[in-house]
Design goal:
Strand content: 25-35%
Radius of gyration: 29 Å
Helix content: 10-25%
Strand order of the largest sheet: 1-3-9-5-7
Length: 281
């Protein structure tokens, strides 16, 4: 009889604990909705601004583009075409470019290079960064997916850091007969937010954006001349991704640990002193 009563009490406690756990997981899942939404690729800008239709010829004159918009440019075979875009911590940018070639041309190779705010060439995780267009080919498509941008890194490392990124598109193996032929290019940058899996314990004082040092000086001396070289930044500001799914999983782990402690105590404490046994017996 006593054993049956004990089992019934334990079963009721476990059922109650399961209900509490279900409610906690549901609430944490609702709280994680923003993090899940951030993990989707970046959407096209909705401000109605026209996409750029030209490209720069150097790092300093690179055309600024936003993530999610498709820019175009016209040029000549042999030119260097430059664009720049912002990338923040925990983002994994993917750059795609399409080069439309003239009807008649020889075999030529095109290459897509990406540089960070310190103008360090960044390696591609995957994607066809260099491709050869056979004679008569109408177009060639290139792609480069970078490593995840880190909020902080060692000085000796070559990790991608928040700031401006530069894209350079050019022909690397061009016959002399094709020099100067008209070409057109389309480029688009999208990012996937990796979330808490890419979080690190640290952050840069300022993003690697041209002119950021001048901006800092202007805050102290309002009379300083403006010399801002870059005006692009993420839609919700730099290093705005402080929220990540790491917070959610940390909270879930805490709830599970608390429930495990309560369940263990309920299973091991017993029923106490029976009512029919007097104290001190």
């Amino acid at each position: 009889m006593r054993v049956g009563h004990v089992m019934r009490v334990v079963r009721e406690q476990l059922v109650g604990g399961t209900r509490v756990l279900g409610s906690a997981v549901l609430l944490l899942g609702l709280a994680a909705a923003p993090a899940v939404a951030d993990a989707s690729p970046s959407a096209s800008p909705s401000d109605g601004s026209a996409a750029p239709t030209s490209a720069g010829t150097s790092f300093r004159t690179a055309t600024e583009i936003d993530q999610g918009e498709q820019a175009t440019a016209s040029g000549s075979a042999g030119d260097y075409l430059y664009w720049s875009f912002p990338a923040d911590a925990t983002q994994r940018p993917t750059v795609k470019a399409t080069v439309k070639l003239p009807d008649t041309h020889a075999s030529e190779a095109w290459q897509l290079d990406v540089y960070d705010g310190l103008r360090r060439r960044q390696a591609c995780q995957y994607g066809a960064q260099t491709r050869t267009a056979a004679a008569g080919t109408a177009s060639v498509e290139l792609a480069c997916t970078l490593r995840t941008v880190r909020a902080w890194s060692e000085q000796w490392a070559n990790d991608p850091l928040p700031g401006t990124y530069y894209v350079r598109l050019t022909a690397v193996d061009l016959p002399t007969s094709d020099l100067g032929l008209p070409v057109s290019a389309e480029i688009r940058v999208d990012s996937k937010d990796i979330g808490g899996a890419a979080a690190v314990d640290g952050s840069l004082a300022e993003p690697l954006v041209p002119g950021i040092a001048v901006k800092s000086e202007e805050k102290e001396d309002s009379s300083a001349a403006s010399a801002v070289l870059s005006s692009i930044e993420p839609d919700d500001g730099w290093s705005s991704g402080w929220w990540s799914d790491r917070w959610v999983w940390t909270a879930i782990g805490g709830v599970l640990a608390a429930l495990a402690g309560v369940g263990g105590y309920a299973l091991t404490r017993g029923m106490g002193r029976p009512r029919q046994v007097p104290p001190g017996a």
